[in-house]
Request: fold
Amino acid sequence: MPPPAHGPRIAIVGGGIGGLAVGAFLRRAGLTATVHEQAAALTEVGAGIIMAPNAVRLLRRLGLMDRFLRRAVALEWGWEFRRWADGRVLSVERLSGVCEKLYGERTYVTHRADLLDTLRSAVPGAWVRLGARCTGVEARPDGALLRFGDGGAVEADVVIGADGVHSVVRNTVAEPAPPTYSGLCAFRAVVPARAAPEFALRPAQTLWLGPGRHFVHYPIAGGSAVNVVGIAPAGDYTVESWNATATSEEFGAEFAGWDPRVRDLIAAGGTPGRWALLDRAPLRHWSRGRITLLGDAAHPMFPFFAQGAAQSIEDAAVLARCLAASPDEPEPALKRYELARIERTARLQHLSHARRDINHLPDGVDQQARDAALAASDPLVGNGWIYGHDAEEALGGS
Reply:
């Protein structure tokens, strides 16, 4: 489908959650684009993902809720903090009936592949170019030239880098800077419901806090599986890849001595994935000329606030509205998008960074103070600036 005569030629690099989300919002806005995805098929590795109200309301505006709800699980309990050794509940928030009253939507958990499938349904197949590995982007006064691994090249009026934490497009927009070593790694597994303890099948997002580590689980895939994530010291492990694996013995050893329910979930999970959490400081800008960034390419963050995918979807909604408002002037449109998004995403990056130390306090006075603060707080209300945010309304004027 060619772009309209009055619209820019928009190239999206990356066909993950952010790339397909911006494609869907551009289509809704009456613009067209080409999604250049390096993989041979649109698939999403990884496992579970949390969709808070700030992202869910945007999916609803795309008309995708029926498809999304086929496999998503509505949470009744969220941020259920438990003590590592015995599972004592430190704090829990009730979501069912409260979340939608406060923010107009519920909170859901889903498999990343199911969310990708939902977004893919809103992007015409003719827009997607598979097996297209972008190797570089050259900025030009009136657009950009994209180069690909097969030797081909494509000209575009606007380039959107939605190509993740190892973004190629980012190198054209910002000064290349290596990530710093966080000292943490994540183990991830998906446990079939038939093998999971009954406790883990509840519609709850549960976080176990312990010295130097924390452990998370919640149901996904329509309740047919449980997503399991363990954050632990990385040692000398520095591989940052969704495809890297560990052994269940390595995963289990990190949580030796923890509540038996944690150890049972780890044992039931088979071969876990493992990747290092590398730290990246917020960018001061992420647009240059007619090239911009979106999602993890612009603002990768630790997963401790469960907002990575949600922020990509917010980015997509705002970017599409900015381009649609001035399709013949993409440079100011991209700057408007950046200004609308950069402060919010940087704040979430900083908060996610700080959470790692709070979650991993050793037993003692500081840990006891943290637990008392958790018991006295209501994160659903306290994080209203996250969940109540309407990315499109906040933009205004278009």
Remarks:
- Residues 330-359 form the longest helix (30 residues).
- Residues 214 and 231 are 5 Å apart (CA to CA).
